[in-house]
């Protein structure tokens, strides 16, 4: 059972820790990779000082703030007219040291002014505030403690009310001198009763947003599936390929803190960097591990370590708060296709993802390299015997996966903002997509991705939005239990 | 470059290395060791069992039940989860099992966090005042106890005594198990499923038993976690926690009786020393591009790198046997 190669630790230690240097001597391509990967990390650092100033740190936000765990939550497209009052501007750096209880009253994206919020402590009123034209209200509080925040329902304008079952009194705990955002769930009464969209329209809109999300997931899942097909590795660090692409693009694009390149160009740059990033995973980590004959399950656990290290590295570089790209952030739904209202960017995102999927499909079916990739997936030994350089193919597959992941990351974050853990949030959804189609089958992954996206988004018609991920994961578990080889009937090529 | 208070950091490390977090890590690690170390099952949803244990207890207490009833319910619930999760998944391949179990744990966490179930689980805020009964029977009078770095208040000390007793019991159980015929068959399953089956052993039943045992121990770990402060929140039960426990097991040595205990102590010692030093180095104003709030993130970078490096260079950990620790070759 003892692997003779394991005993050569010192040599492998060198080759891993000094991978860059050694590989530079070995070939030029690796040197370029190393340089550019370094550049990808260093470029953002250079522009850090300005980036820091505008960040809002959400890392210590406590309690019932907006749930950031639910992936794919896109406030802009919730078409049922309800929306949580989100605290967009906990950012205010006030002169006074007093902590504040803040809120923003919004319904369907529209701020609502004139609503009164009353804050009291142990039954004594501390203060009150009426929301301004941005819907914001804030009350300074003397110190830490358990406060009661009450919404004066009589001050609410005609047609606006609390969501059914939502409390009018909240009890936030203020810690230290931190501002404490609170959320009142508001809805427009007439929206659902009189002029609101019909159930059919809501379902149609959910289908459209699910399709967009699914196409993006499919894009990323194809890379995951290709890696599994050619190497057998279940890559738990795949989410970080998305995050990397989105963050790299942000640093190229942002006016404040980045280089200010227009988003389409910046996205191209992000995809190129993502490709190199993906390839560097193979070049510096998995190729050496394969050479020393590490079991695939150990490689999988290593990919978890890698995911952690990369994710939190990115969080240190990028900051804990979500940020937007500089363009295309606040579009209104101006495109009407039958019952579906879309923002122009929804159409563009779906189209880009669709075209990219077709391109990948054609590449795999028609191109010489694509054929080589399929050959290595099918039968590694035979393909090596027929003269295919499998290590080169795997390197290219990692590059493709990195590029597709980066593209998916950019598309995802242009509706939902860039965040350091965005990739982690969709990792299990990608797994669901890949397993649905059957691990290692590219076209299965495409269809699986679209299916998971549509089903989980449409489930919000019946379920709360934060349970969307549960639907996706339940699909995954169900598939694994009923038909581990995937429901689309594609034969699994590898055992 | 920096004037670092090394003594202070070491004191932090020594104190935390045997504190409640380390006990929870050791106990959960022992459960994981049964599944992963001895039976070779790659359970990535271990934290789900701890969640069920903790919430089972908390919900009973929250609805007016006694803590002891709560503990019984929590532990049984964790065992049931092990059964329900194990029955359909244990026939799956290692990587499918990993994905299935991590998904189940995530589903449980999202449900505990969801607004829909807030009346039962408390949503993101969780449930408080769970361990009042536990502190009430604390025989230790109020005050601070200990020598040097190890200095705790009466409630922490009480929780630690109970916690370490649980760890000792679980380790004793593990020790007995590994020497029993059952333990030997379990290891045989890990080494070669087909060979074991050909000897007439019920491989699936062995795996299921190991899975449930591990799940029950994780349930205890989850309950113990709620005793530290007396509240339960969904935040703790993220997938990350499972991976921390993997690091604990691999660090100490998978498939060794004391591995998880040693691993947890070392893990918390280094994490605390590192945290302390890094906080001092970065200070309030930050250093270069690193801000004071990034200390936690850098800690996770370190954990990630440690997992990868351990698996590459010392998969057997501190105490382990290299042949036994090589996962995925069986």
Question: What's the quick description here?
Answer:
The complex is a heterodimer of chains A (495) and B (330). Chain A is built from 16 helices and 16 strands.
Main features:
heterodimer, A: 495 residues, alpha+beta, 4-stranded antiparallel beta sheet, 3-stranded antiparallel beta sheet, 16 helices, 16 strands, 11% strand, elongated, B: 330 residues, mainly alpha, two-stranded antiparallel sheet, 69% helix, 2% strand, globular
**Derived structural class of chain A:** alpha+beta
CA-based shape of chain A: elongated
Q: Between the first and last Cα atoms of chain A, what is the distance in angstroms? A: 22 Å
**Helical region count of chain B?**
15
Largest sheet of chain A: 4 strands, antiparallel
Number-wise, the strands of chain A total 16
Helix and strand element order of chain B = HHHHHHHEEHHHHHHHH
Mean pLDDT of chain B: 88
Distance between the termini of chain B: 50 Å
Q: Order of strands across the biggest sheet of chain A?
A: 6-5-9-11
Give, in spatial order, the strands making up the sheet with the most strands of chain B: 1-2
Q: In total, how many beta strands of chain B?
A: 2
Strand content of chain B: under 5%
> What Rg of chain A, in angstroms, do the CA atoms define?
25 Å
Mean pLDDT of chain A: 76
Q: What is the helical fraction of chain A, as a range of percent?
A: 40-55%
Strand content of chain A: 5-15%
Plain-language structure description:
By secondary structure, chain A is an alpha+beta fold. Chain A has 16 helices and 16 strands. Chain B contains 15 helices and two strands. A two-stranded antiparallel sheet of chain B has the order 1-2. At the A-B interface, helix 1, helix 4, helix 9, helix 14 and helix 16 of A face helix 5, helix 12 and helix 14 of B.
């Amino acid at each position: 059972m003892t692997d003779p190669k394991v005993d050569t630790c010192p040599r492998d230690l060198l080759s891993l820790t000094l991978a860059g240097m050694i590989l530079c001597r070995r070939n030029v391509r690796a040197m370029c990779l190393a340089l550019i990967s370094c550049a990808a990390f260093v470029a953002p650092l250079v522009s850090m000082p300005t980036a820091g100033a505008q960040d809002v740190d959400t890392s210590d936000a406590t309690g019932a703030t907006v749930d950031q765990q639910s992936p794919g939550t896109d406030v802009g497209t919730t078409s049922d007219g309800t929306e949580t009052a989100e605290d967009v501007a906990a950012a205010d750096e006030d002169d006074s040291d007093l902590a504040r209880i803040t809120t923003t009253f919004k319904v369907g994206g529209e701020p609502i002014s004139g609503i009164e919020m009353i804050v009291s402590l142990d039954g004594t009123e501390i203060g009150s505030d009426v929301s301004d034209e941005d819907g914001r209200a804030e009350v300074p509080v003397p110190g830490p403690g358990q406060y009661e925040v009450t919404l004066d329902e009589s001050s609410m304008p005609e047609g606006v009310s609390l969501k059914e079952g939502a409390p009018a009194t909240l009890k936030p705990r203020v810690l230290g001198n931190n501002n404490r955002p609170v959320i009142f769930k508001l809805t427009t009464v007439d929206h659902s009763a009189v002029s609101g969209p019909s159930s059919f329209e809501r379902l149609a809109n959910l289908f459209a947003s699910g399709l967009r999300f699914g196409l993006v997931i499919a894009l990323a899942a194809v890379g995951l599936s290709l890696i599994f097909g050619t190497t057998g590795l279940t890559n738990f660090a795949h989410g970080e390929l998305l995050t990397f692409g989105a963050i790299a693009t942000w640093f190229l694009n942002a006016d404040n803190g980045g280089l200010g390149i227009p988003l389409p160009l910046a996205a191209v740059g992000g995809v190129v960097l993502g490709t190199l990033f993906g390839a560097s995973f193979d070049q510096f980590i998995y190729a050496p591990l394969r050479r020393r004959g590490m079991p695939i399950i150990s490689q999988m656990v290593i990919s978890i370590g890698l995911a952690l290290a990369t994710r939190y590295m990115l969080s240190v570089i990028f900051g804990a708060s979500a940020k937007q790209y500089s363009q295309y952030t606040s579009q209104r739904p101006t495109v009407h296709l039958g019952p579906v209202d879309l923002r122009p960017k929804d159409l563009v995102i779906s189209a880009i993802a669709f075209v990219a999927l077709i391109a990948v499909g054609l590449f795999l079916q028609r191109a010489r390299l694509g054929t080589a990739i399929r050959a290595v997936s099918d039968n590694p030994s035979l393909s090596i015997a027929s003269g295919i350089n499998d290590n080169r193919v795997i390197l290219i597959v990692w590059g493709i996966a990195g590029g597709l992941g980066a593209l998916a990351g950019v598309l995802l974050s242009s509706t939902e903002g860039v965040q350091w853990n965005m990739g982690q949030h969709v990792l299990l959804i990608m797994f669901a997509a890949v397993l649905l189609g059957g691990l290692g089958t590219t076209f299965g992954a495409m269809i699986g991705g679209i299916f998971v996206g549509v089903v989980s988004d449409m489930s919000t018609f019946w379920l709360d939005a934060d349970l969307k991920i549960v639907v996706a994961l339940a699909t995954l578990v169900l598939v694994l239990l009923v038909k581990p080889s995937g429901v689309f009937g594609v034969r699994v090529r590898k055992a | 470059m920096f004037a670092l208070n090394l003594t202070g950091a070491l004191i932090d490390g020594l104190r935390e290395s045997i504190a409640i977090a380390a006990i929870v890590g050791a106990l959960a690690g022992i459960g994981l060791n049964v599944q992963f170390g001895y039976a070779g099952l790659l359970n990535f949803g271990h934290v789900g069992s701890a969640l069920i244990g903790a919430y089972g207890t908390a919900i009973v207490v929250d609805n007016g039940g006694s803590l002891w009833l709560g503990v019984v319910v929590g532990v049984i619930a964790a065992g049931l989860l092990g059964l329900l999760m194990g029955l359909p998944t244990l026939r799956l391949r290692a990587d499918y099992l990993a994905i299935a179990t991590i998904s189940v744990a995530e589903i449980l966490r999202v449900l505990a966090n969801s607004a829909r179930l807030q009346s039962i689980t408390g949503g993101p805020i969780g449930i408080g005042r769970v361990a009042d009964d536990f502190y009430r029977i604390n025989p230790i009078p109020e005050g601070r106890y200990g020598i040097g770095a190890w200095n705790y208040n009466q409630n922490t000390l009480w929780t630690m005594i109970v916690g370490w007793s649980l760890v000792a019991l679980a380790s004793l159980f593990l020790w007995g198990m590994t020497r029993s015929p059952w333990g030997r068959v379990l290891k045989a399953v890990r080494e070669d499923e087909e060979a074991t089956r050909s000897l007439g052993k019920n491989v699936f039943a062995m795996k299921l038993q190991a899975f449930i045992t591990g799940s029950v121990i994780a349930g205890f770990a989850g309950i113990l976690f709620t005793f530290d402060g007396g509240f339960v929140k969904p935040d703790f039960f993220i997938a990350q926690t499972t991976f921390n426990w993997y690091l604990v097991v691999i660090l100490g040595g998978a498939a060794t009786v004391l591995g998880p205990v040693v691993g947890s102590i070392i893990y918390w010692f280094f994490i605390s020393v590192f945290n302390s030093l890094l906080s001092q180095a970065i200070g309030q104003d930050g250093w270069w591009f690193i801000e004071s709030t990034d200390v936690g993130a850098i800690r996770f970078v370190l954990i990630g790198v440690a997992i990868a490096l351990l698996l590459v260079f010392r998969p057997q950990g501190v105490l382990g046997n290299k042949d036994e620790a090589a996962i995925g070759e069986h």
